[in-house]
Specification:
The structure is a single chain. By secondary structure, this protein is α+β, with helices and mostly antiparallel strands. Helix content is 35%, strand content 41%. The chain has one helix and 15 strands, in the order H-E-E-E-E-E-E-E-E-E-E-E-E-E-E-E. The strands form four sheets. It has a four-stranded antiparallel sheet with strand order 1-2-3-4, covered by helices on one side. A four-stranded antiparallel sheet has the order 8-15-14-13, with no helix packed on it. The N and C termini lie far apart (137 Å).
Length: 212
């Protein structure tokens, strides 16, 4: 009898040990599965982060490329035109009705004109230049009148020039019926005007000239 009880006790202990080992094995598997899932989530999160970074990089790169394109556009003239005195006008398109002209002679830039919401003009030693909002360049020699005063212009226009300050002159452009159709002001720099195909320059020194 004593021997049988001892055998049953041994068997019971063995069964308890096997059950405990199974529980530990199951717990380890579950823990491993949870760790793998967490690792997978982290991996997916990492991929997502890299994707966002990549998209941000592409956006930055595209912006830089656009800026370079704009700089390249501004860096090269859309065309070159010979002026009446033999110098060259390099015409740059900067935007809608926004143009810049560099007057170049023998490799040197002598003057720059730019349309900023209005036509531009220049008196370059009795050569007059107008740059229009449409990017057209017109040049001619001579024909200047020194204000103040009232002067006849090309195309039947009349200009009434008044001095408003140091290197500041105003010209009222008067039509056939006596009405003032335009006013230009030279405020320490020359100005220009396209008056229906008649080109007018008023200098900061009060000289006005026109050409049709």
């Amino acid at each position: 009898m004593t021997t049988r009880r001892a055998r049953r006790t041994v068997r019971s202990a063995a069964l308890v040990a096997v059950a405990a080992a199974a529980v530990l094995s199951l717990t380890a598997c579950q823990s491993g599965g949870n760790g793998a899932a967490a690792g997978s989530e982290k991996a997916r999160a990492g991929v997502g982060a890299r994707t966002v970074t990549s998209a941000a990089y592409r956006t930055t790169a595209e912006t830089a490329e656009t800026a370079k394109s704009a700089q390249a556009k501004a860096g090269y003239p859309v065309r070159t035109q010979t002026l009446v005195d033999g110098s060259k006008a390099e015409i740059y398109e900067l935007g809608d009705q926004h143009y810049r002209v560099k007057i170049v002679s023998r490799g040197s830039v002598l003057a720059t004109l730019e349309t900023k919401g209005a036509d531009a003009g220049l008196d370059a030693n009795d050569m007059f230049v107008v740059l229009t909002l449409g990017g057209e360049v017109h040049s001619w020699m001579g024909g200047g009148h020194t204000g103040p005063g009232t002067f006849k212009l090309a195309g039947g226009w009349t200009a009434k020039v008044t001095k408003t300050g140091e290197l500041r002159y105003r010209a009222q452009i008067i039509g056939h019926d006596g009405s003032v159709d335009a006013t230009i002001e030279a405020n320490q720099h020359d100005v220009g005007l396209d008056a229906n195909g008649v080109y007018i320059v008023l200098s900061a020194g009060g000289v006005i000239s026109s050409h049709a």
